[in-house]
Design goal:
Layout: E1 6-9, E2 15-16, E3 21-22, E4 26-30, E5 35-38, H1 57-79, E6 83-89, E7 92-99, E8 102-110, E9 112-117, H2 124-137, E10 147-150, E11 154-155
Helix pairs in contact: 1-2
């Protein structure tokens, strides 16, 4: 077992908190010392109270699923004797209504483009199997109820 920490810092600046007119800009700090700016999504909270230049929780969630899938996929490919030279995923998370007054990221679509090198190259069926196994073993996908779809796994 391991423990993973994140520190979220926010402070009220100018604005009117009671009327919802305050900045949602905050800082997200991770183990290892890196910090990134965070904000509510401008699709959820209009500007100027949000920032499109910061990471919103829905994008961070989508990125966590994508990164976990990729890391698991890379390890499975290595164990199967394949060599991946590049992996790019333009993942997309969908925020939708799930019940009266409730919203959730209901679906995340992964669109990996993988470049292979070396003499041993996987078939389309082997790539599909690697993606299926990666989804089954990914820590993050095992932690959520969101539908995760790998769309047209492709190679370069």
């Amino acid at each position: 077992m391991s423990v993973h920490r994140a520190t979220v810092d926010w402070a009220l600046g100018e604005g009117d908190f009671a009327k919802g007119r305050y900045s949602r800009l905050h800082t997200i700090g991770f183990d290892g010392g890196i910090s990134v700016p965070g904000s509510a999504s401008p699709a959820v909270v209009p500007s100027p109270w949000s920032s499109g230049e910061a990471v919103d929780p829905e994008a961070a969630f989508t990125a966590a699923l994508s990164a976990c899938h990729m890391l698991t996929f890379l390890d499975l490919a290595r164990r199967a004797g394949f060599t991946v030279s590049a992996y790019r995923d333009e993942a997309e998370g969908t925020l939708a209504h799930v019940a009266r007054g409730k919203m959730a990221v209901t679906r995340v679509v992964l669109r990996p483009v993988i470049a292979w090198t070396g003499a041993k190259r996987p078939s389309a069926a082997e790539i599909d199997t690697l993606h299926h196994e990666a989804h089954e073993l990914c820590f993050i996908s095992n932690s959520v109820t969101t539908e995760v779809v790998v769309e047209s796994p492709s190679t370069e």
